[in-house]
Amino acid sequence: MVRSEYGRLILEGVKKATIRLGVVIPKYYDEVIVHSGGRPIAKVRIVDVIYKRVSQLTDEDAKLDGFNNVSELVKALKEVYGDFSPNDTVTIIKFEVIQRLDELKTYDRYHGLSPSDIARIGLRYLKSILNDDEIKILKVLGSGLSIREAAKELYGSVERRWRIRRVVRRVADELVRRGIIRIVDRDYLGGDGEGVKS
After folding, report:
1. Fewer beta carbons under 10 A from the terminal one: N or C of the chain?
2. How far apart are CA 50 and CA 92, in angstroms?
3. Half-sphere exposure of 16 (CA within 13 A, CB side)
4. Which residues contact 44 (CB under 8 A, 6 or more apart)?
5. Which of 92, 75, 84, 70 is nearest to 19 (CA)?
6. Coil vs helix vs strand at 183
7. Tens of pLDDT along 136-152?
8. What is the CA radius of gyration of the chain?
9. How far apart (Å, rounded) are the C-alpha atoms in residues 147 and 137?
């Protein structure tokens, strides 16, 4: 989860890294969903992870994180982490936005998201309304398996893919209904091709 102002900078292409105090090992090295303002805003690919001492940070590092210089960056880090020394380690996680999630299209049943993305987002925001079977399905999908692979793992056969698809559709619809993901509704496209937020 990032602050709203940082989320905006990510979507504008200004913020291309996050700098964290300590040694941070990303849970996922391929695609990560970034959350801001209580909703998912982008899917990013981690392109590099660098470890440095605070004293080794440069203005270039600060600019990648959306700051003008190292002084601004260090001030922001102190607001989050409190006091630290110039010898403390920081982790610079560089990323590129591969898909904006702030306004999705309704081109398909899953609104342009993969079943794995829907599973991860659903587990984060809807866990309290899901039953045990749905949670189990979403955890397997959230690990990166396809619907076919998840059916084999859960049921020993691909024949029950429909159960998984049904859960994914329900979760996707509930995420839209609650405003957690926003879509541009094709039914309301105007002559200029611009959609109306639903």
Report:
1. N
2. 5
3. 9
4. 10, 31, 32, 33, 34, 95, 96, 97, 98
5. 92
6. strand
7. 999 999 998 999 999 99
8. 19
9. 10
pLDDT of residue 112: 84
| C-beta separation of 70 from 78 below 8 A | no
Q: How far apart are CA 27 and CA 144, in angstroms?
A: 13
Phi and psi at residue 81, to the nearest 5°: -105, -10
Q: Where do runs of H (alpha helix) occur along the chain?
A: 4-11, 59-64, 70-81, 115-125, 132-142, 147-155, 161-177
In angstroms, rounded to a whole number, what is the distance separating the alpha carbons of residues 130 and 80? 33
pLDDT for 191: 38
Encoded tokens for 30: 């391929």
Sign of CA dihedral 157, 173, 31, 78: negative
Ordered domains of the chain (ranges, CATH)? 4-100 (3.10.400.10), 104-197 (no CATH)
Q: CA torsion sign, 62 to 67 to 68 to 69?
A: negative
Predicted confidence at residue 198, as pLDDT, reads: 41
Residues with pLDDT less than 50, the chain: 188-198
Type of residue found at 109: R
pLDDT at 190: 41
Write down how long the chain is.
198
